Amino acid sequence: MRNIRPLLALILIATIPLAAQAAEKAQGQKSSTPLTVGDFAVMLAATTGKGPALEVKGAAEALVKAGVPLGNPKAVLTEEKLVEILGFYGVRVKSSTPRQSVSRSKADAALLLVAGTLSSVGTARAGSAPTPSTLNDCLAESNHGQCVGCCKLLGGDANGCANFCQQIKVSEGEPLP
Question: Is 69 exposed, middle or buried (0-12, 13-18, 19+ CB in 10 A)?
Fold first, then answer.
């Protein structure tokens, strides 16, 4: 199961340029109106299932309440803001042109990444405890392998996580060996 997530991410990353190119060809030409943060919020709310996806105000409020760093819904969506939003969902991307506005096809491709991340996290942690927020939460896992897996979900590398999870967690009332 651990090997499926990186493979899924690699496949999704490889398909973004193809999806963006296909979407732009289908439109024939770029839209003259730039995509706003609010427009992207509506698209994102529809993808994640958070809040009403019909109007900008409702979608933006629901996403901000969930912690998504949207900012001003009326502002033009830049690559910098898109990277920040994707980072909230655990998708690590970089932009070589952070001030450039985002086309609708790029936004659609980004939503594919978010959807893929949400589905892979959902299947990887189905039936288990809530997603950990700190490394100390990982130490509470029942064994070393689960601790390492938890640490990797938080962005740690394999060796660092293995070393971190070697810590002995002392229970109250039990002496150290």
Answer: exposed
